[in-house]
Write a structure and sequence with these properties.
The complex is a heterodimer of chains A (about 300) and B (about 325).
Chain A lengths: L1 E10 L3 E4 L2 E4 L7 H16 L8 E5 L10 H9 L5 E6 L4 H14 L5 E8 L12 H4 L5 E10 L4 E8 L7 E2 L14 H5 L6 E2 L1 H23 L8 E5 L3 H11 L6 E2 L1 H5 L6 H12 L7 E8 L3 E8 L1
Parallel strand pairs in A: 4-5, 4-6, 11-12, 11-13
Antiparallel strand pairs in A: 1-7, 2-3, 6-7, 8-14, 9-10, 13-14
Helix pairs in contact in A: 1-2, 6-7
Chain B lengths: L2 E10 L4 E3 L11 H8 L3 E3 L7 H16 L8 E5 L10 H9 L6 E4 L5 H14 L6 E7 L12 H4 L5 E10 L5 E9 L7 E2 L13 H4 L9 E2 L1 H22 L9 E4 L4 H11 L10 H4 L6 H11 L8 E8 L3 E8 L1
Helix pairs in contact in B: 2-3, 7-8
The chains are: A alpha/beta (about 300), B alpha/beta (about 325).
Chain lengths: ~300, ~325
């Protein structure tokens, strides 16, 4: 038994100009759960399923609607799926790949039949919109994508590979609120110092990004027992689009066979991969049966890759 | 498909003990009021900069020693917390750095009081399907830096303590032993009955000086205690029965119930409705308060150290909390 992908869906808020670039930006009081609810409606309609057919939800996000509980229960309530289990996962830019890795054994072991895996972010409400912060703020966008995963005889998750290396966690992080700060995890001084905004060490991210992505893609393809020529499309998510270019070049994949989500709508950490996947299906550039290699690297530092068959 | 089992458990509580009387330095409260409503006599608070991952290190070392394994045997880190060291990334990544085991997957589970149950369920499926051989699961919290330690915040602040628990999960070849069944639930209808609203991405801006000074105190956790009590006292026995039904067992088969430690009255009510005698229910809330994701592994570690669990015992872990989320897991030891 294995995991099949019954359908995917996505939702992007309207594109607006944001620090000189066009980005999908949510408006008050929209959190990732609301974006994911719209994406789920699209996915359910495509699959001919109802919200009540879902028996478990996994939500990957770095920007939950509120500090706690997680975004997943807010999504569950908006969809009206009763009292099924809801798991919130934090794996930053690799969140969707981690979600796939977690969902698969739940389906294979027979614990669940249909899992909704959501990846979504509202970054824009937590960025430094001052002139000093513009260079970072313009990197991000808001949006959500989902995949409806079902238990099936034949697995469509052909290969997966996930990793983390916490030694690099300061290279892409948001320090505050920091529970470790005694005696108060966030103060007005911390806010004046901008410690509640994400900080990126772009040079360090360039160093770790391309190598980790291309290695992980190789591993996922090996596990799928497939070569480059067997893959119909590559979707590579990194906050710096050029890092994705570099990873693809390292593998020898032509640019025409790949999508780099950050170039299209800014970086949407856990949302980028399912959004790009759903967009391509909607546009008809990917069709059922296509083999897609997904890869991401970013904060944590966490990274991974997966080969799926639509 | 093989089963999984818990190979070793450990815990760490920071040394500073804060009694109910000690809380009077921050707020108007008293020992009798707190004890009567919650069963709490004292809790542990950090006394310097320390995060959930720092508390977890000692708990993990103990869990590994009890499992007879070294850190290099760990294939994956799952960290359950609602009070991560930093806003981003996951505390699992910070723990990974401290343990010195780069490369393996590491992620956080953000499921509040049910976090350890959800994490154990994930670890169980990873082991069952042969993805990993040894999964480290941690439940750890530093609440004391994020609660409102003033008279305004006392309803919530008196309940919580800091602490960490950890378990190493590995394969169990005997299909009659180890983790027998996991059952998980949630109901987002009640998300705002026990929550921490700010910072939250749905508000613009999610955090600034105005949010810090918000008269609703949205920067601190808020709870409607009556709702939580009522639902917990119903949902916990319900999910325990569901887990028992799945494996054809009865409440009388449970050797030991180790519930999440939120309120001794909730656990007494749940046990009574199942007909489980008081001496078969583990409590440590009097000494630790509510350590959220940490409470079940801390209580499990104490119970094992006290020799209260024998091979062959049926142990039931159960919990309920913010989300609402809840669950139950049965383990044949």
């Amino acid at each position: 038994m294995g995991t099949a992908i019954a359908s995917v869906g996505h939702f992007l808020p309207p594109m607006v100009e944001h620090h000189g670039v066009l980005r999908p930006i949510a408006v008050d009081p929209i959190g990732p759960s609301t974006l994911a609810a719209r994406a789920t409606e699209a996915a359910l309609a495509r699959a001919g399923l109802n919200a009540t057919d879902i028996d478990f939800i996994i939500f990957a996000t770095t920007t939950p609607d509120v500090t706690f509980p997680g975004a997943g229960v807010f999504l569950q309530h908006q969809l009206g799926c009763g009292t099924i289990g809801v798991l919130d996962v934090r794996a930053q830019c690799a969140g969707f790949l981690y979600g796939l890795a977690i969902a698969d054994p739940f389906l294979r072991s027979g614990a669940y039949e249909r899992i909704l895996l959501a990846g979504g972010e509202v970054h824009s409400s937590g960025l430094d919109d001052s002139e000093a912060g513009a260079a970072t703020a313009r990197l991000f966008g808001d949006g959500a994508g989902v995949a409806l995963l079902v238990r099936a005889e034949e697995s469509a998750l052909l290969g997966i590979d996930i990793h983390a290396d916490g030694r690099h966690h300061r290279e892409f992080w948001c320090e505050h609120p920091a529970s470790r700060q005694f005696p108060t995890r966030i103060t007005e001084d911390d806010i004046r110092a901008g410690k509640h905004f994400p900080k990126l060490d772009l040079e360090a991210l360039r160093t770790t990004g391309a190598i980790s992505i291309s290695q992980s893609m190789r591993t996922a393809m090996e596990r799928a027992d497939l070569g480059l020529a067997d893959i119909d499309h590559f979707i590579v998510s990194h906050v710096i689009p050029e890092v994705a270019d570099e990873a693809l070049a390292d593998l020898g994949v032509e640019a025409s066979r790949a999508t780099i989500p950050a170039r299209r709508f800014g970086h949407i950490m856990a949302g980028a991969l399912p959004i790009a996947l759903s967009e391509q299906l909607e546009a008809g550039t990917l069709a059922p049966g296509a083999r897609v290699c997904l890869a991401a690297a970013g904060a944590g530092f966490a990274w991974g890759a997966a080969v799926i068959q639509l | 498909m093989r089963n999984s089992r818990i190979l070793g458990v450990g815990r760490y509580l920071p040394p500073r003990v804060v009694t109910n009387d000690d809380l009077q330095q921050y707020m108007e409260t008293n020992d009798e009021w707190i004890q009567q409503r919650t069963g709490i006599r004292q809790r542990h608070f950090i006394d310097r900069d320390l995060g959930a991952s720092d508390l977890a290190v000692a708990a993990v070392e103990q869990a590994l020693a009890n499992a007879g394994l070294t850190k290099d045997a760990i294939d994956c880190i799952i960290f359950a917390t609602l009070s991560p060291d930093v806003d981003m990334p996951a505390s699992a990544c910070l723990l990974q750095e401290k343990l010195g085991i780069p490369g393996i997957p590491a992620f956080d589970v953000r499921n509040q009081c049910s976090g350890f149950l959800y994490s154990l369920a994930i670890a169980d499926k990873f082991i069952k399907t042969g993805v990993y051989e040894h999964v480290l699961i941690v439940g750890a919290e530093v609440h004391s830096t994020g609660v409102d330690l003033s008279t305004r915040g006392r309803e919530v602040a008196v309940l919580f303590g800091d602490g960490a628990g950890a378990a190493v999960v590995g394969p169990e070849p005997d299909s009659q032993r180890g983790v027998l069944v996991t059952r998980l639930h949630a109901d987002g209808k009640f998300a705002e009955k026990l929550w921490l609203e700010s910072p939250g991405s749905r508000a613009r801006p999610r955090l600034d000086i105005d949010v810090m000074r918000d008269p609703r105190a949205s920067i601190f956790p808020q709870m409607e205690g009556r709702y939580v009590f009522k639902h917990a006292a119903t949902r916990m026995p319900e999910v325990i029965r569901e887990a028992l039904d799945a494996v054809g067992m009865l409440p009388s088969d449970i050797s030991l119930l180790i519930p999440h430690q939120a309120n001794i009255r909730i656990n007494q009510a749940a046990a009574a409705s199942l007909g489980i005698a008081e001496e078969r229910v583990v409590h440590n809330i009097d000494r630790c308060g509510n350590t959220t994701a940490g409470s079940i592994p801390i209580a499990l570690s104490e119970t094992l150290d006290a020799g209260r669990i024998q091979p062959g015992d049926l142990v039931c872990l159960a919990g309920f909390g913010a989300g609402f989320t809840w669950g139950a897991i049965l383990i044949r030891w």
